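Structure Section — protein described below
Tokens — whole-number codes for backbone shape
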Amino acid sequence: MTYFIAGNTAVENTRALAQSALPNAPQEPYEEPSRRIAAVRVRLGAALRSVAARELRLAERLDPSPTCGS
């Protein structure tokens, strides 16, 4: 089972899980991602949130949900 931890990629989670399952396996030092990579992740996350919000607005226009009490 892989747990989501904010800031970690699936590859990092998988590596950590694999290393924890093998107690005698050599441990790799964690290297902090560069500022450039972190900035790209932030921009990509913002873009994906923006697209998701736009899709939700479009879906609401196409098939509005009934409001209670009207």
About this structure: The chain has two helices and no strands.
